[in-house]
Each structure stands twice: as C-alpha cells, then as structure tokens.
Design a protein that fits this description.
31% of the residues lie in helices and 28% in strands. With 210 residues, it is of the alpha+beta class.
C-alpha cells in the first residue's frame, strides 16, 4: 500500500507539472497571436526596424507579405533616370553638392549617360542622361511644393536621411536651392523637405519621426 501511495503522489505531481507547462505554452501562443494580429491590422504603421544598412534611423513601414506567386516576383528597384541638357553639369552638381559617387559612364547614340550613387548607399542609383538634342522639357522653376503639385507626370525622387534639418543646412551652405523648408507629415510619421537640381528637378528628403 505504501508503494502505491508513493506512486500515486508522484503521478499527481507529474500531472500538475504537465498542467503548469501547458498553461505557460498556451499563454505564449495567445501572446504571439495577439502580436501577429496587431501587425496585420496596422500594416502601414511605421516601425523602428533596421534598413539594409542596419541603421535604425532609417526605419520604414511594415509592408504586406511578399507575393512570391507573382510573375514579377523578381522585380527590384534600381534607379531613377533624369534627362538633362548637359551631362557634365549635372554630374558635377551631384558630386560636388551631394557627394554622390560616379559608378559608371557610357555612350548611347549621341547621348552620354552615367550612374551615380549616394555617398554610402550602393542600392540606389540616379541615372543622368545628357547630350543629344533634347526637346524643351516641361520642367518649371517651382517656388514651393504646392505649385509643383499642380502638374501631371513625374514629380520627384526621395532620399532618406537621419536628419532633414541638418541636411538642409548642409545643402544651403553649398548653395543648393531649397524649394520647401522642413515640415512634418504626421500621417506617415515623416519630416520632409524639398530641393532642386540646376535644371529644376525636385528631390525630396525624408526623416522617420520617432
């Protein structure tokens, strides 16, 4: 009898331990479900996650899940192209004013082209197309952001920075035209500003707000 009582007590202890473990596992599963549901409900809310450089100041939105079944699943952003009357003038401006690096240069028919990359970013290029005999472009010398939004077609490209205000001051010190002073757009948790190249093409600066 004594042996049976000992075995019965051990069985109860084992069963109680299993019950406690089950409760812990169930609680963790519920917590994970709540976290996943929260992310799925707010897919566009900015999140402090590292960008491709590992810099958390460049946090961005949490996008929807990848559509790996798409026939275009191999598409990746690579560059934006800007047509200019003169390649050398444009190239010199990007190098001297923005510290861009010349990645490659080549000719195409009677045009001269170049890829330029930001000072420390190898994942995004600006392609400059110069030379030839370009027709007059419908690019206006915008005096403010509101005026620029009146017209259809290509508008600007954007560069992420750690501090919009510091970048604007550095650009101003180099004689770059600031089209729109820094302002906050809380709908996307960003601080923004706009400047332009010598030909009136707009470039946006974006800083993720904490």
């Amino acid at each position: 009898m004594t042996g049976n009582r000992i075995e019965s007590r051990q069985f109860r202890e084992i069963r109680a331990a299993h019950y406690q473990i089950s409760l812990i596992i169930e609680t963790k599963i519920i917590s994970l479900i709540l976290i996943v549901e929260k992310v799925q409900i707010s897919p566009r809310k900015p999140a402090l996650v590292p960008d491709h450089t590992g810099d958390k100041t460049m946090a961005d939105f949490i996008p929807p899940a990848h559509n790996t079944a798409s026939p275009f699943a191999d598409m990746r952003g690579h560059h934006v192209a800007v047509r200019t009357p003169d390649l050398e003038t444009a190239k010199r401006w990007y190098v001297e004013k923005l510290d861009f690096r010349v990645v490659a240069e080549w000719d195409y028919a009677d045009e001269q082209l170049a890829y330029l990359a930001p000072a420390t970013d190898d994942h995004f290029y600006v392609e400059i197309l110069g030379g030839g005999d370009p027709s007059p472009a419908d690019v206006r010398p915008y005096t403010d952001l509101g005026d620029s939004l009146k017209y259809a077609g290509y508008h600007h490209f954007c560069l992420n920075v750690a501090s919009v205000d510091a970048t604007v001051e550095a650009l101003r010190a180099r004689g770059v035209t600031i089209v729109t002073e820094p302002f906050e757009l809380l709908a996307i948790s960003r601080r923004l500003a706009f400047f332009c190249d010598p030909f009136g093409n707009l470039i946006e600066l974006a800083e993720v707000l904490p």
